Amino acid sequence: MTLVQTESRPADADPAHRTAVEVMDAAGPQVCDDMSVEVALAVMAAARTVRLVVCDQDAQCTGLVTHAELAAVRDSSDYTDRVRLRDILGDHGSFPSPVTTMAEAEHAMRTRRLGVLPVVDEQGSALGVLALSR
């Protein structure tokens, strides 16, 4: 697995020393953590995306959910329409900043077994996402 790179780069650039801001994708749709799973799935379908950045009432990034995660929750026997995104967010730990090197970000993602991770600014607002490719 290697990190997805969305920008062209000089052949001599060392990918490990590039920063998150240089290779991150756009954050895409951001939703509030009090949104229900069903509504989040509808937002994903309308936006034609497979992930949503989740924020709290103060617009601070609290995590990210994928279509696969939401579908698994919806299909579980414990699911009710009262389940909110904040109820299913795992502990992703800290998020990389725009100046985090790709080597650091990739190590964190592999250690935490995350395929995608938001990049946040100093105030905790999502700026973009980093994704591991297979």
UniProtKB/TrEMBL annotation:
The keyword NAD does not apply. Keywords: CBS domain. InterPro entries: CBS_dom (IPR000644), CBS_dom_sf (IPR046342), Diverse_CBS-Domain (IPR051257). Residues 31-71, 98-131 form the CBS domain. Pfam families: CBS. PANTHER family: CBS DOMAIN-CONTAINING PROTEIN CBSX3, MITOCHONDRIAL, REGULATORY PROTEIN. This is CBS domain-containing protein.
